[in-house]
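Why run this: before we spend reagent on co-expression, it is cheaper to look at a predicted model of the complex and decide which construct boundaries make sense. The entries below are exactly what would go into the expression plan.
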Amino acid sequence: MVELNYYLGLSSILFAIGVIGVLVRRNAIIIFMSIELMFNSINLSLISFSSFLGDVTGQILVFFIIAVAAAEAAIGLAIIIALFRNKGTVNIDEINILKW
Amino acid sequence: MTFIIILIFSGAFLAPLIYRYLNKISGWVLALFPLSAFVYLIYNIDITSNGGHFTEEFLWFESLNVNILFYVDGLSLLFGMIITLFGALIAIYSNAYMKKYEGVGKYYLWLLFFAGSMLGVVISGNLITLFVFWELTSFSSFFLIGFFNEKEKSRYAAMQALLVTCLGGLALFAGFIFIYIITGSFDLRYLILHSDVVKSSPLYTIALFLILLGAFTKSAQVPFHFWLPNAMEAPAPVSAYLHSATMVKAGVFLLMRLAPVLGDTDIWNITLISVGMTTMLLGAAMSVAQKDLKKILAYTTISALGTLVLLIGIGTPLAYSAAVLFVLSHALYKGSFFLIAGIVDKKTGSRDVESLSGLYHYMPAVAVFSILAALSFSGFPPFINFISKELSYKASLDTQFYFILIPIFLLASNILSMYSALLAGLKPYLGIKSEYKEKYKISFSFILAPALLSLGGIAAVFFTGILDANVISPAAKSIFLVNTAVEMKYWYGFNTAFILSLLTFAGGYFLYRYRDTFKFYNIVFVNRLAPSRIYDYLLSSIKLISFRQTRILQSGYLRYYIIIIISFLSVTVAAVIIQGNIINLTLDFRFEGIYEMVLFTGIMFSAILATISKSRLSAVVLLGVVGYGVAVIFVLHGAPDLAITQFTIETLTVIIFVLILYRLPKFSNISDRNSKIRDWIIASVFGIIMTIVTLAVVSTEMKPETANYYAEFSKLLANGKNVVNVILVDFRALDTLGEITVLAVAALGIYGLLKLTVKK
Amino acid sequence: MITLAELVNAVPLLIIAIAAILTLLITTFFKKSTDVVFAVTIISLFAAIFFYFGDLEKDALIFTESLRINMVSIMFSVIALTAVFISVLSAKSYIEKEEINFGEYYSLSLFATLGMLVMIHSANLIVLFIGLELMSICFFVLTGFLRKRVKSNEGALKYFLLGAFMTGFLLFGISLIYGTSGTLDFIKMLQNQSLVKQPLFLIGVALFSIGFFFKMGIFPFHMWVPDVYEGAPTSVTGLMSTAGKIAAVGTLAPFIVNTNVTSLKVIFSVLAVLTMLFGNVIALSQVNIKRLLAFSSIASAGYILVGITAMNEFSVKGVAFYLFAYTFMQLGAFILVSVIEKPSDSSNDYKGVNLDDYKGLASKNPSLAVLLTIFLFSLGGIPPFAGFWGKYYLFYAAIKSELVWLSVIAILLSIISIYYYLKIIVYMWFSKESGNEVEIVVPPFASIALYIAAGLTILFGLFPNLFFVMFKTVLK
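The model came back. Tokens follow.
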């Protein structure tokens, strides 16, 4: 078993990569997948804390995060498709009617 | 006290009904409400004339310790009488004036509502009550003007008037808050007793500044005077009531009310005198360049308000008496003037003093009352205004401020005002008969109010003693707090003040006599000098700032929103880290657990590749790989059930995403070079900061003292072996229910968003 | 494990949960049943409010310590329910007008309400997270409910992506809190006094707060607010801007105040000032009334944050009172906007939501103009309307915490807001009608909702103490 800080380091790096993905990607779906990556990194740190503290509540939260992320993915896809039907694009740089 | 306030407000809410059923005489009936309040005040005059006061207090907002406090002393009584008496007269006048308008019921509603609020201002015993009624006057005055104004051009004026007074109101509130911070009380009685605390506080200056801002905007002092002439679009009775007798005097009232608390410091005296003097002279000077009857009256009102502020600034007993008396006499003649202007406007359709002439032949009664008002305005004896002029000259001669400047300013402005008075009150009625139809029929209710007001100015002669003892002196005393003993007389002897009065008459008559030579109309400096330009400039520049800000912050692009958020977070968290001094990390890389290291590297690389990969599909798949990697780590931490959940859901997500991506059109998915570099820099800085934070978690001391309720009891109570499952099912049944709900809603949402679209 | 007493305490929540599922079932199995669904929704919301004033235990932890029923949580729940009640009441005619009269609308509103209640009552971070997500997901869908309208889609997408993104930070905060405190339970956290001295715990709390700041619309997490408010169906906007904000504040404020993380005061007050500044300044240049109200709601969030920053015994009360007042005036304004909005013929946009459409409203429909004037004056903090006392309470709380400068800045910045409120008022009263002659029909339910809102704005302005009397006498 490696030490806690390795897990946490990995978690932070993944979180940052997720943020980078959100920033540099233009496809709404991939942006959302990057957000899921952020969630995964949080799961990672939660589970590490959980086993470090010897307390299972962290694991329970992880379970809920996974499920909620799935629900959000479903909703997100629905929203993206609804927009695509009306507008014909999922490029967030072209989605700019609401402004100012 | 409460009784009369409630009386007037209930009158207000009954007004539309009364108007509906008693159409023709509704004004007369409604006049009874303020009139009975007036009678009530007169009835109680004994209490205040001895310098006493009466109060009533109610609990209002207990949890903030705010009470409603009514407090009536000499000053409140004087103002209260003016407000109620005028209210009654204006209601009667409106009976005739408002005949042909629509929505008169609402007009009466707001008129009485205003009267009630104004009365509330002057009988408030604490600052919160005062502020509430103060704002109510703004609110109701707005409707009084608004109901009869559909002219597009008056929009600007209305906006201006409202904005200036509302801003002043809030400044006033801020000032009151400062007073509260200093003393811990809003109660006037307490504040007067502890005025030395207020004056010696370091917050005194700012509090004073804010309160003066409120008073000056309401009372149209330079440089906030510009809204008053613009507000002359209002119907005549409204102008007479609000813009001469009551609302604009609220600021003056406030200054008088707070003089014992805030007054008698150098900054108070000098500010008030300077502002008052400037306003007085500028108002008078601007009035002579006007042709419009109502504009002339508006500017002379500004001048009169300036005089009042000046007198309060001088701050001697004599000055206070002069101010109090002037409040009364000004209300009488100016109210009459405004009402007469309304009659003239209504009957002839013109308010242009240049073209109006010979009206005496058409409306002799109006002419008589108008001339009386003009003479009163000019300060001729035996009008009551003569005494107030005399007193103010005396007061101006008797002060250490500004040496001799004050009487000179006063003289100049009085001369100019007298010219305006004659022009507005005399000129239209005398001279050659111009072409008008026939004699105008002027109904009784039309002429009653101006007649009473004009006659009141001269009738007061017979009551100077009573007036002085019961109204003026008590009012002055409640400002100065000690008995002032200034006797009201018509003859104080042949002194400087009298000479100044004589000079005034001579100068005023001279200007009026040779007005054609001077051609004041052509002087257009008024418009150039207007601070309303500053107002316009401020407004447009703040709008420009707003516009530019919006373009930057609300670009509508999601990417910029995220950039702003990330940058902000980076800066803040970095600041906290540096502040909290938590960067004492011990990074010793020990090569333990080679398998984990391989796993970690794999996860990291897939994540990085996913972010930079050009292909959408591989991005999705790589992100899926990261998910699987995380699932493996779950297994390592002894949470196989979590791992299974993660596997399942990750697989599902990836499959669905791939399927959908497949159906969407392709586009190059990486931004252009420059923005890419910018995004990477921002994101990397953020990533580094986040890493530091998390690593710092480990270096802080943690206690894994796990009073682990669940682990101990899960087997006992729920008879399960897998801790997480037991918890999910038994201990956390509600959460799980919630979870299921989330999923159900997700399904519902998809249904709502997608399936229904198919119908199309 | 669940006792009867616990169920009794959770009656309002159960009512909402059952009603939500019931409406869902009705909608699924019976076509053209929206009137029934509407009735069920209204009744259940009313019943929930009613039972909150019933015989609940006044300080209880129920369902294995996952929910807290106490004075504060009841107060916020009632406010949130009131907001939903008024909003749903007025929504009927609006969704009929926009031809999205589906039962799902009410189901989603009820599920969102359930999420809010769960969140407000949550006793630990897990329950809180689930409640928050339940509410958010419903709001995502409701924002996109006008499926054929691009603005609605776009609003939903932006809300969704930013929402999910910010959830990431919220969770990051939770994980830090968990890592440093070793627990997810609020009560256990409070027992550990040394926690607030740990910088990492504070960063955790800060990130956690940011998740809520996003929902409230605090600068610089506010950018979604105008876009989503403009894009969403107007009735949904009203719901989000009131009930959504109440839930977020009602969860965050007690947590922050109880944890007493005074070291975050500086950051909070800076954010409050920036929020009030940007909200008010940007609102000046708006021409769309929905966006204008969105910015004004951002500014309101700033005032609320002033109250939270005070972190004293007045904070929670002040925030609650402000939100209560805010509910009526903001919701009232949005209902009015939804009434004046014109039905969307074939064109793919909201019609009649520009300031120009309000020109001459006073001559066209004086009672609507008076109502809107009341709401706007109240929003501007002019007495004697409820909004004044709300602001006053918040600023008072700040003064009591030695944050005099903050409350003075708040007052001065709220002066700016007067301008744009007055602009609408002057448009209504001092302008001639701009061309369109379409009669404005005020549907019965919407007008009930409007008069309730206006009446309560005035009532609680004249008798502000009623609010506390209401909760004290009934709940003691």
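The mean pLDDT of chain A is 83. The first helix of chain A runs from residue 4 to 24. Bring this page to Monday's planning discussion.
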